[in-house]
């Protein structure tokens, strides 16, 4: 009996040891393969490290957690290489790193530490024939962006800049909370996160918002503006306007207004929604054209004509400081020059090159925007404006000469493609002589100008 009991205990001990060994092997194997299940290249490891270095949030944020999980899985599953096929019929593949591609895309900027396209990606299925609001956002405007998403209920491409400082993690955490709290943000807003130490690279941010726009058309918009009318219905409900926009040779201006008293412009719910309301408040000296004290900025929109017409009309008195809010085609239009850092001339330079490239500006007669009043940052902008004024003078000369050579070389100097350039480049000293235009062409232009005066 005792022998039989000892035998049973011995057998149980053996079974226990075997089970223990099997469990140990299982956990060891699982742990090993969870770390080493994919062999990554050094660049892939670098990409994974950058993704894993993004802040993680401790408190429960279910919607954001899900979005972040989807983002991280997508980021890990894709290669950090961009590939091109070889010559026709060849199986050769040429690879370039995405970091190298980004460095070329933003080669004129101050430098890039971290640019993450679609940090949050809108769930709404974008239609090609739609207008994306391409806008720039910093931490103090997160809630304004949320309001814009709820108002527009259409695609928004937001380049969001976060300073790489001690507040970086808190800023991204705040962005995530606001994004998760508004279903319209999650549905319509693509967030492209830019983290670096270089503040106010406005044109670099504009290019980021434009580059990752997922529709055929975009509106270059400051996030502080409230959309008072449905310009998408105006444009796509009018075959003529749709055709003009589709051609890529028309940019549509939506006139901008602001309240003379800052307190009147704080609550967007009190803003007029019809043109008649705007005219009434202009007559009552409550509302006026945006930055009306600086006529060069928006004067070319010709507000006097806007008040009295119901027909779309062209901008005929373009000047180099003009800064309207325009809707235009994404493809085959110039990018913003990223050398402009800080305040002054950055947007004007962008719009100037678009105009010189042969894109005409036309004004919508019944749609409008109103600026939402806010306090401006209390810092000295004088140095930035002085720097950019000098830069802009040189830039205008560069652009005029470059497009002159382009039109002469491609044989379009005497076509409508060069008309806008000829209108605004005449104040550049010795422009025609420096641009490579032949003596015969200069003489022909002179005769044409004299004929126009006689007519």
TrEMBL record:
Q: Does this entry carry the keyword Transmembrane?
A: yes
Q: What processes in GO biological process is this protein linked to?
A: protein O-linked glycosylation via mannose
Task: Provide the membrane topology annotation.
Answer: Single-pass type II membrane protein
Q: Which UniProt keywords apply?
A: Glycoprotein, Membrane, Signal-anchor, Transmembrane, Transmembrane helix
What compartments host this protein? Membrane
Transmembrane segments annotated in the record for this chain:
12-33
- Protein name in the entry: Glycosyltransferase family 49 protein
Entry keyword annotation includes Transmembrane helix: yes
Q: Which GO terms describe its molecular function?
A: glucuronosyltransferase activity; xylosyltransferase activity
* PANTHER family, alphabetized: GLYCOSYLTRANSFERASE-LIKE PROTEIN LARGE, GLYCOSYLTRANSFERASE-RELATED
> What InterPro entries is this protein classified in?
Nucleotide-diphossugar_trans, Xyl/GlcA_transferase
- Record's GO cellular component terms: membrane
């Amino acid at each position: 009996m005792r022998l039989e009991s000892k035998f049973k205990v011995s057998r149980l001990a053996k079974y226990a040891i075997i089970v223990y060994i099997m469990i140990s092997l299982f956990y060891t194997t699982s742990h090993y393969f969870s770390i080493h299940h994919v062999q990554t290249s050094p660049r892939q490891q670098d990409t994974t490290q950058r993704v894993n270095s993004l802040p993680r949030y401790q408190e429960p944020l279910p919607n954001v957690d899900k979005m972040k999980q989807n983002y991280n899985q997508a980021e890990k599953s894709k290669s950090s290489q961009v590939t091109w096929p070889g010559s026709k019929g060849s199986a050769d593949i040429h690879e370039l790193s995405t970091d190298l591609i980004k460095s070329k895309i933003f080669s004129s900027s101050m430098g890039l530490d971290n640019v993450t396209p679609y940090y949050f990606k809108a769930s709404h299925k974008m239609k090609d024939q739609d207008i994306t609001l391409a806008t720039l956002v910093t931490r103090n405007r997160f809630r304004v962006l949320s309001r814009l998403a709820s108002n527009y209920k259409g695609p928004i491409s937001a380049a969001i800049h976060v300073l790489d400082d001690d507040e970086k993690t808190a800023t991204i955490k705040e962005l995530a909370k606001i994004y998760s709290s508004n279903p319209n943000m999650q549905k319509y807003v693509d967030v492209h996160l830019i983290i670096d130490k270089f503040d106010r690279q406005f044109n670099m941010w504009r290019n980021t918002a434009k580059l990752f726009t997922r529709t055929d058309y975009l509106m270059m918009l400051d996030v502080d503006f409230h959309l008072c009318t449905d310009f998408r219905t105006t444009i796509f409900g009018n075959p003529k306007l749709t055709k003009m926009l589709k051609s890529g040779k028309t940019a549509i201006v939506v006139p901008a207004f602001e309240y003379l008293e800052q307190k009147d412009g704080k609550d967007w719910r009190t803003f007029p929604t019809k043109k008649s309301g705007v005219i009434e408040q202009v007559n009552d000296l409550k509302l006026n054209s945006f930055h009306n004290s600086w006529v060069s900025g928006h004067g070319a929109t010709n507000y006097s004509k806007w008040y009295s017409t119901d027909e779309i009309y062209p901008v005929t008195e373009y000047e180099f400081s003009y800064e309207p809010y325009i809707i235009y085609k994404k493809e085959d239009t110039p990018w913003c020059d990223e050398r402009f850092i800080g305040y002054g001339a950055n947007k004007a330079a962008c719009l100037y090159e678009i105009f010189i490239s042969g894109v005409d500006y036309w004004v919508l007669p019944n749609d409008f925007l109103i600026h939402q009043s806010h306090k401006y940052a209390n810092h000295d902008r004088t140095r930035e404006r002085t720097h950019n004024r000098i830069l802009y003078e040189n830039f205008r000369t560069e652009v005029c000469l470059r497009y002159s050579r382009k039109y002469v070389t491609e044989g379009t100097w005497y076509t409508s493609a060069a008309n806008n350039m000829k209108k605004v480049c005449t104040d550049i000293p010795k422009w025609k002589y420096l641009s490579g235009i032949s003596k015969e062409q200069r003489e022909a232009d002179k005769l044409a100008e004299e004929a126009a005066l006689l007519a």
